[in-house]
Amino acid sequence: MTVTHPVRVYRSDESLPREDQLAHKIARVAADPVEVEPEVREMIVNRVLDNAAVAIASLNRAPIVSARDQALCHAPGPHGAGSALYGLDAAGTRVSPEWAAWANGVAVRELDYHDTFLAAEYSHPGDNIPPILAVAQHAGRSGAELLRGLATGYEIQVDLVKSISLHRHKIDHVAHLGPSAAAGIGTLLGLDVETIFQAVGQALHTTTATRQSRKGEISTWKAHAPAFAGKMAVESVDRAMRGQTSPVPIYEGEDGVIAWLLDGPDAAYEVPLPAPGEPKRAILDTYTKEHSAEYQAQAWIDLARRLHAEHPELGDPERVESIVLHTSHHTHYVIGSGANDPQKYDPTASRETLDHSIPYIFTVALQDGAWSHDASYAPERAGRRDTVALWRKVTTEEDPEWTRRYHAIDPREKAFGGRAEITLTDGTRIVEEIAVADAHPLGARPFAREQYVRKLRTLAEGRVADAELDRFIDAAENLAELAPGELGALNVTADVELATGPKGIF
């Protein structure tokens, strides 16, 4: 059973008991020693595999090289075994957990290729895995304890995303990740409610930032933002365990997050959280990506691939008058032409910008009938003359019905696609629509364990030896049985030389 908690702003002269504060309620959920249900365990394994897949594919990309180099400058402290880094042998290289959370968080997020949950806010709840796993490795915890921590991380982030919009006020979505990761670490370590409460408040306070990181010319910080939230969550728990406190009430205070960064002093939210003794199942509401692009692009890539096969003439800009994608508010205003970002039509734009441009993504998928995390973003691919000509004929429009379906609570109604209306130069019109991506649980080819493993093997090809990959998959699939101190087995050692980059202060 889920309990819905009203949340509003309180004046300083009003009384809001600690136990009625949202951060305290989150802490109580985190401290609740419920068992992890079998289907939740299985989905957590899927996401551990998925995170490793996209991290391996990123190992020598510049943001990961930078973050890994920074992490390698920070050895573990005296009170733990340290944490592993993707690509490096866990037995030979360990770093301080907050820096492992940082480096692995960047690796997981760089390609925009792991799981997602969309509701009132946006999120990639798999971002919880790097910080919680890093602490679990450092603290010598078991697979069963890690499962409980990850179930909490997913639960809290999804519940906050369902109820509190950040993007409406141009606050980056990682403001929900700091509290969820802190709560998950609290569950993992078996901390008391008061300690988790203080950690959640600190994690929120230190991870509220603007959405400029996802606007206009999108920089390498896009991958660093969730990693920073995970790093702050680790540090917040550490401080709370040492008796340090946080701003109170962090959400509801007169000068708190809601009053000044979100809906203001008259705000009212209804936040769902599991009732005491209720299992944490929110991970089952989330979904992963078949393609390396913003989630709202997933269904559009699948539709474009289908149109490529059925109407190959649509790839020729000389034959196309216009392509209008009728879609949700978010797709139109964030990754569509409604963003009014000229960079979304710029063939010299960064990869981070192109993977947030649905006009570009739809064009390339329509011409190629396929999507690659590498080739589809290559500068020579983006700059192809016929691509640029067709790309600039693609626009988006908000459709109220697709916006309604985007926000629908019923999973059978919820949709992330839209309707494509294509007009050819000879006057022919082609109209097709798609509601969800093929890989979505309600899509044409839903992802199951087989697809997660295939994605991992595909992205690891040429980067990880077969025997090492088999060992990692076996360890992940037996996560629940890993004994205390054995969680280094959830790391993957690369079979390629890992690059290093320019030096900084460290």
UniProtKB/TrEMBL annotation:
Keywords: Lyase. Residues 21-268 form the MmgE/PrpD N-terminal domain. Gene3D superfamilies: 2-methylcitrate dehydratase PrpD. This is 2-methylcitrate dehydratase. Monomer. Its EC number is 4.2.1.79. The keyword Lyase applies. It holds the Pfam family MmgE_PrpD_N. It is an enzyme of class 4 (lyase). GO terms for molecular function: 2-methylcitrate dehydratase activity. InterPro entries: MmgE/PrpD_sf, MmgE/PrpD_sf_1, MmgE/PrpD_sf_2, MmgE_PrpD, MmgE_PrpD_C, MmgE_PrpD_N. Belongs to the PrpD family. It comes from Rothia santali. Residues 291-479 form the MmgE/PrpD C-terminal domain. It comes from the Bacteria. PANTHER family: 2-METHYLCITRATE DEHYDRATASE, 2-METHYLCITRATE DEHYDRATASE-RELATED.
